[in-house]
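## Example record

The block below lists the input lines for one assembly entry, exactly as stored, with component labels intact.
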Amino acid sequence: MLDVTALLEEIKASPFEEMDILAPHTGVVSFPDISPGAKVYGPRGTWKEVPGTILATLERERNAKPIMASQAGDLAWLATDLAGTFVEAGTPIARIRHYLSKDEVQQIILKQALHLFRAPDRAKYYFTPEVDLKIKASGPRSVTVYEGLELFIMSRMKREAPVSYQGPEGVIYAVYFQHNQNVDAGDPLVGVCPPEQLPLIEDVVVRVQTEWQEQG
Amino acid sequence: MDTDKKLQILAERLRYIQDILGHRENDHSRLLASELAEIQSLEKNWAQERKVKALETLEELFDFAEKQLEQELTPMDRVRIVRHPQRICLKDILENVYDNYTEIGGQDEYSIDPSIVIARAYITRRSRGKAVHQPVMVIGQEKGHGQEFRNGGSVKPWGNAKALHYMKVAETENIPIHTYVFTPGAYPVEDYPGAAQQIAKNLYEMAALKVPVVAVFSEGGSGGAEAIALADMRLMLSHGYYSVISPEGGAAIEGRLRQGQRATPELIESCAKNLKITAEDNLRFGYIDRIIQEPPLGARPEHYDFFKLLRQEVVAATDEVFLKFKGIKFFRAMGVRRMERRRRQGAYTTENFYVRWGLNAAAKEDLVARRYARHARMSRWASRDSRPAKEKFMASVHDVGWSVYSFFKYDFLRKHQKVVVHTLEEVAAEVQYVVGKLLSPWRALRGMFNSKPALNHGKAKELTELSYWEDPAAGSGWRWVSPRAKEDKAITCPNATTHGCLDLWAPDLFGDHAGVCSYCGHHFPMEPQWFVNNICDAGSIYEFNAEIEAGNPLGYPGLDKKLDEAKQRTGMKSACRTFEARIDNTRVVVAMLTGTFRGGSVGAAEGEKFFQAAERALKKRFPFIAYVHGTAGIRIQEGTNGVIQMPRCTMAVRRYIDAGGLYMVIYDTNSYAGPVASFLGCSPYQFSVRSANIGFAGPGVIKETTGMDIPPDYHRAYRALSRGHIQGIWDRRELRANCIQALLTMGGRNVYYR
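Predicted structure tokens for the full assembly:
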């Protein structure tokens, strides 16, 4: 059984992810007026249309290409010793320390704790009438699913086909699709967890929401 | 009147004065404020008689101060007057100017667009002792004294569509249209029918509307105003403004401000002054016909005398338009002239004459022709034509020569020629049938003895092979190659992060691939010469009107320098190049808006060249292609001299299309604002290369006006295509083939090669 508390403690111990920014191709690297410790931003805006902070410029064939931060955080390290030199593709040129947000922590925990049942095809999905009735009456967590249970109706171009649940037995913790909307193939439909873990997960989610201090 | 009430009214008058003076401190307003405060604090201890006397004196002081302030009004004060919630609005005019009216298709916020109000109204006049109701369609923007849902008179595309619908209704019913312009500008959303494209449709339809239109301007904000203001007579309220852009917008561009930054009040003031937006300025330029004098500091709903005057002016203007087309009009025309004379002397009068507001079929044609001629004359003074008088004379002789030649060749001879040709065709077909029947036994006999013809293997291979190797010696295939292709460097496609495009080598990209990314198909902007040399046949270009030069008609500070710099850099004299060319041996007239010259902005010179190009295409019966290498809109530093090109060029295009030509628009890079909302957007055949952006206003303006964030691909050609704004998207590499195909399949009855 997954030890969620230990997982949360582990995340708390290092509440960030460090990512290396690698040179995408060969070229002569140069750095703008930025030094380690500076705050950097990833792409921003509703459509991520505002590019991230420029960390370095890589010039190849007289084509200066800006290398931008992909996540927000602190600039942990910058390969200033490489300034003006030719680097190979894949050479680390910067490291960003990205502090985890509440949502990200929650996602990490849920990813490990839940079994995600994914859509086999792009279509609209509905619960079978019995399951649907149960969910409407007492919420998704009242439904226990098991291997082979006819859980969904897949509706595509007005033609319907039953979809059976595949995976470990458990209760539906979260529903990820909406009525009457298309779901792409591979997108999660429901998250399932063993019934005995349910109170634990709920507790951890509440703790993350209330206790997690977002940094950076 | 009760003294308290009088005091309250005076306090309101003071507040109004302070509102329209904005941040400016003024001696008069200070004096009025202190006098009013003094009376307010002391009047409780005064006897009634003293109160009345003091208030009378104060009222006189207010009248005096208002007259003084009237003399000192700056253009920006006038902008504040027309935007003030107490400013008269269309509903006030409907109540006070017309004798009866019914609002159509809207009741306050229950309307497809509450910022436009349409009403059927009538004006009652006396004719030989009888009362005659003269019906009229009233269309205008409604600001509604601060009613939030009216959007300040900023009309959405569907509101303009509704206005157009009722203009057509008026045309069907053969009644005149009165339009009232109370708009700071159109609401810049692209949702169907689209801000720009709907204004273009309105202008296109109004260009040939067969009923008289009289427009009255209060707040004429650029494209939004033009959507209903293409008229046979344009009146303007003395405190109104008519401008290419709001002074704040102008200041933001002048000060190169970024989104969210605010221009200083001084910069806005100076912009308002430099843009020459007042009624006097526009009368001087010739874009309005008459000014209607308002009471000091602008008309407000309680100024009943003003409504009386407005009624007289609007009726007189309508009469004047109709009288131009009446057979028996001698004395009444004299009466109109007398009224005009008196008006100039400052005296107003209601002439007691009657004009029937209706036109017969011939007069309707005449109306449209006069409207065209009226617009053709406008703004000619605002561009510079450096040709010597002799050359100008020769050009006009050439024009007349072509008109005569066209008439004989296409109208006179072809009509008769067609009859002869058709008859010969029929006779030949008959003969062919009879001969075929007579010779059929002989052919059958010959076929029995003759062997099958030998197979041409080369030809058979060419016809049956699916594909073949191109000749490697043929080179890139482009006649003109961008100088950027000579640089040994790599270029990154802007879609590289999303589409995984590898770096492109400049000689490949700009030389072989016509600026198209070979991985994702993104089109990089190319030079204007690329189109001229690679789409048109070699050596077929004949440029005309190259000497018409962009000028600075408003004397806008700094524009001369910017124009000189652009002229030197591009070697062109304006952003519009007009030339005759051949495409696959079909002769065409091309007007090209060049993004490299002041962003391809359109001013008086560009408009004049476009107008003349359309006229030339009409005379010569050539297809007319507008190639938009790029345009940022109307050149704001030319003020209304630029805006007037919207109706003007649309009229030229309309006339050309009605005469049976092919008008095609090709967008290559970014095309925005005025030109798209008029002479480009009205084309039935608009095509775009793949990566062009087409729209009305840029993201910054949309955010500021509507508060909406728009996605980065909002203006992309594919979005424009799915909204129904353009008719197709072409790959730049296939532009020539597509042009040839378009010339073969599109257009009206009168293109010469048909």
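Residues 483-525 of chain B form one domain. The interface with chain A takes residues 487-492, 503, 505, 709, 711-712 of chain B (CB under 8 Å).
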